[in-house]
Amino acid sequence: MKFGVVVFPGSNCDYDTFHALQNVMGQETVFLWHKDHDLQRVDGVVLPGGFSYGDYLRSGAIARFSPIMAEVKKFAEAGGLVLGICNGFQILLEAGLLPGAMLRNKNLKFLCQHVHIRVENQKTAFTNAARKGQVLRIPIAHFDGNYYADPELLAELEKNKQIVFRYCNEKGQVTEGANVNGSVSNIAGIINREGNVLGLMPHPERASEKILGSEDGRVIFQSMINYLEKKAGRGKKKATKVVKPKVTPLPPLIGTF
Amino acid sequence: MIDEKILADHNLTRDEYEYIVKLIGREPNLTELGIFSVMWSEHCGYKSSKVYLKRFPTKGKYLIQGPGENAGVLDLGDGLAVVFKIESHNHPSYIEPYQGAATGVGGILRDIFTMGARPVAVLDSLRFGPLDNPKNRAIMEGVVSGISGYGNSFGVPTVGGEVYFHECYSQNPLVNVCCVGLAEKDRLFFARAQGVGNAVIYVGAKTGRDGIHGATMASAEFGKDTEQKRPNVQVGDPFKEKLLLEACLEAMAKNLIVGIQDMGAAGLTCSTTEMAAKAGTGMEINLDLVPQREEGMSPYEIMLSESQERMLIVAEPDKVQELQKIFSKWDLDAVVIGKVTDDGQLKAYFHGELVIDIPVKAVVDLCPAYRRPAKTPAFIKKISRFKMPEMPSDLNQVFLQMVASPNLADKEWVYRQYDHMVQVNTMVLPGADSAVLRLKGLKKGLAMTLDGNSRYAYLNPRRGGQIAVAEACRNLACAGAMPMGVTNCLNFGNPEKPEIMWQFKEAVEGIAEACHQFDIPVTGGNVSFYNETEGKAIYPTPVLGIVGLVEDVSAVPSAGFLGNKEVIILLGENKEELGGSEYLKLVFDEEKGQPPALHFETEKRVQECCRQAIRQKLVRTAHDVSDGGLAVALAECSFKSPKKIGFEVKLNDQIRTDALLFGESQSRIILVAKEKNARKIMALARKLKVKAKFIGKTGGKKMVIWHKKKKVVDQTVEMAYNAWKNAIPGYFKISKGE
Asked: Which residue, among B108, B101, B183, has the nearest Cα to B139 in the 3D structure?
C-alpha cells in the first residue's frame, strides 16, 4: 500500500511517521508538501504530529487552510483513509473532518509520557488488528490534548461507536487517574461516522519498535494496511509493493521533491 | 565625544579604549565602540579565562574539530559525525525565565545546525534556589516551560540533564543547555567568509531592537536595577527556527553554501567580523538592506541587535538565486546585504554613508587577555576542617528524608514537560545515568550526560572539577559507552575578584587533568562569569557534557531492577567519606570537609569493568553511586524498576553506618545480573583488578539494608517511592487540576 505523510511548516513527527510506515511496516511512503495540490495517488493519508505553523493562534487552526488540506478533505469525502496523530488530530478537528475541540491539558502543562489506551471499538479500519478491549501502551506528547465534546455530541459519539480509544490504567480500567489531560469521558481517539477518518492524541509511530519500549502502535498501522489490502483485493488486484529501504540515521531532506 | 560614562555603559576600561584607538588609528564612532564592546565582552572575548582554557587537552582519537568553531565535532564512524556544545543562558533566565531559557535553547540549536548537523538531542543543567521560596518556584516554572516551549515546538527531544537546588542560586539561577547533532562527516560547514566577491546573505527572522547588549549584560554583576534589564532579553520563535533549520540543511545538501554562521550573542557584529577574520578576508555590507522589523533603527541598533533565528551565509554569486528559492519555499527572508572583500576591514554603509570601517582581526583576535590575580579565599581553610557529627539514631527515617530531598527526588515533573521522544531515537528515557539514542539502521548508538557538583567545587574546586569529569564518564560507562569528547560550561562569580579567579583556575586545572587521564579532548564550551547579584556569588559550578559511543545498543542495561532474585554486585569500595555530601547538608545543614577522594586509576578500572560486562551482555541493570550514596543509588534502582522490585542488601564494611549508606565515595557502580552471569562479572573484576562483591539480591516489595547483622534500612518500596515521586510536584500543587 502507498501512504502519504503531510508536511506542514512546523510538522516535526513527519519523518518519524514516515520511518514507521516505510522502514518498520514496509509500506511505500511519500511526503506530501503542504503547498501542493497532489496526493500522489496514495491509499492512505497521515497528518503527523508537531506544531504546524507554530500552533500560533490555536493548535491546528492555520494548517487547515493549507492547499493540501483541500485535497485531503476531498480524499476523505470520497472514502479515503485519513489518520491524524496529535497535531494531526487537532488539524482534523479544526478542519471539521472530526467533531469536537481541544482544550489545554488540565494541569496546564505540556505532557510527554507513556499512557495506556483501551480499544473501545475494534471493528474499524484503524483497529481491526486489535483484540476486543486490547490495552495499548503508547506515548503522548502534547499541550492541548484535553478533548472536549458537549453532552449532545458525546451521546452521539457513544451511540455511533465513534469513540475508538480511551485513556485507561495498565489493567484497562478507565479511571479518572488515567485521564492525564482531562479529556471528556477519557477520550483519546475518535473516528468519523463514515469510519474512514480517525484522530488520536497518542503517537503510534513512537511505539512501533521494541527498542523504543513498545510495539503496540503497530496495531494501528497494521489495521490500516489490512483494511486497504482487503479493499484493494475486492476491487482490482493490487500487488503490495514490498519496499526494502536503506535505513539511515539521518532523515532525508523533507519537502524537497 | 567618548567620555567615561559612555565607556562605563559599554563595560570598557579606559586602557581598553586607548588600545582600540591604537588598533584602528583613530577615535571610534559610537557604533564602532559598540562593536568592540560586545566582541571584547567577557561573554564573547573570554578575556579573563583564555589563559587558563589553553590547559584543556584538545587532541583525541575521535576528534574532528576542537575549540574555535561554533561547536565541537567527533567522528562516530560510518561516515557520521557528532556535533555538540553547551552554552549558558543564566543572566537572561533570571530576568525573564521563559524567554531567557527558550532563547538559550534556540541559540545552542543554531550553533549545531550552522555546522551542517541536525540537532538530535538537548540536555539541560538547571540550578535554582530552594523551592520553599515562591520566587524560585516561579523562576523554575518559567525556565522549564521556556525550554519545553522552544524545544518541543522545534522538534528536538530533551533527553536528559540535571536539576539542583541551593541557596546560592536564589538570585542567580543557572541554565546551561547542551545540544547534540548528527552530521555527515564529509559535509561539515564552517564560519568562514571565503572567496573575495562572494555574496553575503542574511537569512531568517527580521532584525528588531531586542537583545541589544545582551552579551555585555551577561558580562557584569547584577545590582538592584536588574528588573530594568528586561528589554535586553531576546524573544524566541521556535517555529521560525524549525523552518530555518530545514532551509539551511537543504541549502547545505545542495552545496550552495561556502560559509555560514548563526547570529547569536552580538548578532550581525559577531557573524560578520568572525567569518571574515577566520577566512582572512574582509566584508562590506549595506545596513539599509538588512530586513528590519521596526522603523528608524540606527546602525548601532542593527549591528548589536540579538534578535533570534537569524543566520549569515556566504555563497558564490551564481548560487544566490537557487539559495533564495529554497528559503522562499520555507517562507523565509534571504537577502544579499553585501560581499566578501580582500582588505580585512568590516565596512558598513547606512543611508549611503560609511558608518563602520574597522579591521576584523582587531575586533576578533586582539581582544585583551588578562591574567587576573588569584588568591585562595579565606573561607577555604575554615570549611575544610570538620568534625563528624553524631550519628542520628533512626537512619531508617533519614533514608526516607534523603530520597525526598529535592536534589535527589524524582525529576519527572520537569522532564515530562519536555518532549523527550520526538525523532524516535530515545531508547533510555530521562532520569537514568545517561541518555542513549539509537542510530537508525546501525548497531551502534550515542550516549550523553551532563554532570556537575557545585558543593564539591565550593569545598575544593580542583577536585570538584575532577569528579565532574569522572562522574560523567562513569554515567556513560553505565550505558556501556566509551567517552569520546567533552564540552563544558563554567559558571563562576566575578573574575575581577581574586578569590573567584582562584576558584576558576583550580577548577579548570582539575578538569584538564581529569580529561588528560581519561584521554578525552575538550572540544569547546562556554564560560559564564559574573554570576553574582548584590555582591553574592554562586558556588563555582563547572558543568561537564560528555558524549560516548555505544558499540551495541542491544546491550544497554536498564536503570532499574528488571527481575526478582537477581544478584546485586558493587564495583568499587565503600569508604568513610561524608565531606560535602547531600546527607551532611540535609540532616546537619553542614557544607564542610573535603569532597570524596578520587583515584584516577581505580576509577578508570571500575569503568572499564562495567563497560566490558555490559558489552558481554552480562548486565541487566547498571547505576552509578553518586549523590546520596549507596542507599539512595539502590533505592533509585527500585524506583526505576518497571515492577517496583525491592532488594535486600547485607554489608559488613568497618565504617560508620551513615557513611556507608549516604557517603559519596567515588568509583562505585551497582551492577545487577542473573546468578550465572554475576559469577562471570566477578571473574572479570578479578581480571581487571577491580574490587567487587555480591552485596545482595533483588526481590520483594521492600528495601532492606543490613549493616553488621543489624537492619538499618527497612522500608516498603511503595512508601519510599511516593516520597521520592511527590517531593518536587508537592511544591507546585495548584488548587485546580492535578
From this structure: B101
Q: State how beta strands B621-624 and B567-571 pair.
A: unpaired
The residue among B271 and A241 whose pLDDT is bigger is: B271
Joined together, the cell numbers standing for residue B605 give 578500572
Give A4's DSSP letter.
Answer: E
The CATH number that applies at residue A18 is 3.40.50.880
- Which three cell numbers, joined as nine digits, stand for A235? 476491487
Residue from B239, B244, B736 to probe the interface with A (highest A Cβ count within 10 Å): B239
Q: DSSP per residue over B633-695, as a string? A: HHHHHHHTSTT---EEEEE--SS-HHHHHH---SS-EEEEE-HHHHHHHHHHHHHTT--EEEE
**A189: pLDDT strictly greater than 80:** yes
Active-site residue set of A: 86, 203, 205
| B471 Cβ neighbours under 8 A, 6+ residues apart | B451, B453, B624, B626, B666
Which residues 146-205 of A have a C-beta within 8 angstroms of B? 182, 203, 205
Chain-chain contact of A248 with B441 (C-beta, under 8 angstroms): yes
Q: Compare CB distances from A112 to B184, B419, B424 and report the shortest one's residue.
A: B419
Interface test with B, best of A112, A181, A203, A210 (most B CBs within 10 A): A112
Q: Is A229 on the interface with B (CB under 8 A)?
A: no
- pLDDT one-digit tens code per residue, B148-158: 999 999 999 99
How many domains is chain A partitioned into structurally?
1
Give the CA count within 13 Å in the CB-facing half-sphere of A19: 25
Coil, strand or helix at B578: coil
Residue B226: the pLDDT is 60
Instruction: Tell me the pLDDT of chain A averaged across its residues.
Output: 94
Closest Cα of chain B to A218: distance in Å?
14
Across the range B185-192, mean pLDDT stands at 95
Query: SS3 for B324?
Result: helix
Integer CA distances (angstroms), B491 to B46, B178, B419, B636, in order: 13, 14, 27, 29
Residues of B noted as catalytic: 43, 89
Q: Could you give the ipTM of this predicted complex? A: 0.95
Preferred mutation among B245, B419, B425, B438 to probe A, highest tally of A CBs within 10 A: B419
Domain around A12: 2-231
Say if residues B539 and B454 touch (Cβ distance below 8 Å): yes
Within a domain: residue A87? yes
For residue A72, tell me if it sits in a domain: yes
In a domain, A250, yes or no: no
Chain A interface includes B226 (CB < 8 A): no
Query: What is the band of A48 on the pLDDT scale with cuts at 50, 70, 90?
Result: very high
With beta carbons less than 8 A apart as the criterion, state whether B670 and B633 touch. yes
* Axis crossing angle, helix B134-154 with helix B238-253, rounded to the nearest 10: 40
Q: Are the C-beta atoms of B565 and B697 separated by less than 8 Å?
A: yes
Measured between alpha carbons, how far is A117 from A147 in angstroms, rounded to an integer? 14
Contact B441 A247 (CB under 8 A): yes
Q: CA of B326 to nearest chain A CA: how many angstroms apart?
A: 9
Contact B440 A16 (CB under 8 A): no
Task: For residue B125, give the C-alpha cell.
Answer: 543543567
Average per-residue pLDDT in chain B? 94
Q: What Å distances lie between residue A127 and A122, A240, B454, B482, B682, CA to CA? A: 5, 20, 52, 43, 49
For residue B389, what is the DSSP state? P
B13 neighbors B37 (Cβ within 8 angstroms): no
Partners of residue A56 in chain B, C-beta under 8 Å = 239
What backbone phi and psi angles, to 5 degrees, belong to A220? -70, -45
Q: What does the pLDDT look like over B54-80, one tens digit per residue?
A: 999 999 999 999 998 899 999 999 999
Kindly state whether residue A251 falls inside one of the protein's structural domains.
no
